Amino acid sequence: MQNERIIEVLEEVYREEVSGDPEDSFQSFLEEFNETRDPELPVYWISETVISAVERLSNRRFGWHTEALKDEWNYSGEFLFICVDPTNHRCLTARTSPDGLCTIGIIFPILNIDDAVHAVEFLLSLVQGRGETRGEKTDESK
Amino acid sequence: MDWEQVAQTLQEIATEFGIEDLDQFIQSAWQDADPVSAGCVAEVIERASERLLDQYFLWSHIVETEDCEWFIPDGWYCFIAVHPESRLCLTFRHDWVGCLKSICFRARIRNIEDAIDAVVRLVDLIQSNLTNQKEGGAYAK
């Protein structure tokens, strides 16, 4: 899928389902978060937008858990995603790393629109059964 | 699940973790706003559930916090368990009309009684999902 289409959907779902403001922009929100890391910002809007984009592009609903990860004092800009297929209860984000460690979540840094596109592409590949394996981290620290 | 058996298992795990007074430890994790201790409480709950079911699972837990700024634990925890071989989510729940309710088991754990109650309910949920998985039926309501 072309990046332009993913960005278009990210902006659509952000305006329609997440922020509710037709004048708002996901890209601007990401820039503000990245510049300030203000804990008062609704940081979960970022992962909710990614999830809504995946569901809209796949035309399906899934069970999700997401967590905005923190460093010592602030949100790090990394998000954990756990995705379960409600039809067969399979955890789609469960995987075994090359060194044999099993994990159930995938962590993406999402600090700009390119990061968000990558997260959507990757999660879309999982829910569509294509299982891309580039660039993600597993939640092995959990 | 028998409360006394759960209490005993929790105490065994706590001893292995080097925790002398589990009730005090759980209360401190919440009252002293200690995220490290709260993480240990979550791990004790997970290990106790595994021991009672005599199986290992893949886990993710979330120590919930009362605000976004200081990340102070508020005594609420979320657990997600996945079967290591089938990759099926064992904390998955449907609502009464059969729609997905949650993939997490959520519990307030602020003292030993809360911990016992959480383990009882978590083990029941996992056991129910394991049974239904074997029978090919619907997951826990």
Task: Walk me through what this model shows.
The complex is a heterodimer of chains A (142) and B (141). Chain A has 142 residues and is an alpha+beta fold. Helix content of chain A is 41%, strand content 20%. Chain A contains 4 helices and 6 strands. In chain A, the strands form 2 sheets. A 4-stranded antiparallel beta sheet of chain A has the order 1-2-5-6, covered by helices on one side. In chain A, strands 3-4 form a two-stranded antiparallel ribbon. In chain A, strand 1 and strand 2 (75-84) form a beta hairpin. In chain A, helix 1 crosses helix 3 (44-58), helix 1 packs across helix 4 and helix 3 (44-58) crosses helix 4. The longest helix of chain A is centred in the N-terminal third of the chain and has 17 residues, at 3-19. Chain A starts with a helix and ends with a strand. By secondary structure, chain B is α+β, with helices and mostly antiparallel strands. Chain B has one domain (3-135). In chain B, strands 1-2-5 form a 3-stranded antiparallel beta sheet. In chain B, helix 1 (3-16) packs across helix 4 (112-135). Chain B is globular. The two termini of chain B are 18 Å apart. Classes of the chains: A alpha+beta (142), B alpha+beta (141). Chains A and B meet through strand 1, strand 2 and strand 4 of A and strand 1 and strand 2 of B.
